[in-house]
């Protein structure tokens, strides 16, 4: 990197680390531009020289709390004997971490960022390359995918190629499992259920496992498009 890029990277880290500290100490809902600026030792206007949206700063800071997840999911997947087991294990790991840290996972995977999240992920790992050290290369492309639907489909396409599921069922399995997770995740995020994290994981994975294991017994029809 040239001097300008080094300076940009340094300033970028000041603000991201300051935001992460506030999230750690007070919670994501208490992050403000003024607090971040004060913690980093700069004025609020300076932040907008490096981040066009507050949501971007929260996204980058939230990514710092995903390191345990990204390292653990690789270990989970390696336990699977086939693509279906790997798919279920990946979901189990995702549920465990997302239900424990709903605000963090909302910021990374659901919150409107206005800009393409793939580019933001690329920028993050340029500044924090150490976060990728323990992640197998074949999984890195999946972890760079912030879209939950595309992440899930990556595993199902492997299962399809190896003959574990039918092609006409791939999209239905993917969509149904995501809807199950989203329903539980929304309940937890909005305090609509009093489940502890492990109970929420058990319930969600019971439904997801049933969907995946019984998928080939059913014929999922494509919904008719309105003319």
Automatic annotation (TrEMBL):
- HTH tetR-type domain location, by residue? 9-69
The record's listing under Pfam families reads: TetR_N
> What InterPro entries does the annotation carry?
Homeodomain-like_sf (IPR009057), HTH_TetR (IPR001647)
Q: Which UniProt keywords apply?
A: DNA-binding
Q: Which residues bind DNA?
A: 32-51
Q: Its domain of life? A: Bacteria
Instruction: Please tell me whether the keyword Coiled coil is annotated for this protein.
Output: no
The molecule here is called TetR/AcrR family transcriptional regulator
**Organism in which the protein naturally occurs:** Kurthia gibsonii
């Amino acid at each position: 990197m040239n001097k300008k890029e080094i300076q940009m990277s340094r300033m970028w880290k000041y603000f991201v680390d300051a935001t992460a500290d506030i999230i750690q100490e007070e919670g994501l809902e208490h992050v403000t531009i003024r607090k971040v600026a004060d913690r980093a030792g700069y004025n609020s206007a300076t932040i907008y020289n490096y981040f066009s949206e507050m949501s971007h700063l929260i996204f980058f800071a939230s990514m710092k709390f995903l390191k345990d997840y990204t390292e653990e999911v690789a270990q989970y997947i390696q336990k699977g004997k086939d693509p279906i087991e790997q798919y279920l294990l990946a979901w189990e790991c995702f549920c465990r971490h997302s239900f424990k840290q709903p605000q963090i996972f909302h910021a990374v995977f659901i919150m409107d960022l206005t800009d393409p999240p793939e580019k933001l992920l690329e920028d993050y790992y340029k500044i924090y390359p150490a976060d990728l050290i323990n992640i197998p290369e074949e999984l890195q492309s999946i972890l760079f995918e912030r879209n939950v639907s595309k992440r899930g489909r990556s595993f199902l396409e492997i299962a399809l190629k190896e003959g574990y599921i039918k092609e006409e069922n791939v999209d239905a399995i993917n969509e149904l499992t995501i809807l199950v997770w989203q329903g539980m995740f929304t309940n937890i995020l909005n305090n609509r259920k009093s489940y502890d994290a492990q109970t929420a994981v058990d319930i969600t994975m019971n439904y997801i496992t049933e969907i995946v294991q019984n998928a080939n017994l059913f014929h999922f029809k494509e919904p008719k498009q309105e003319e």
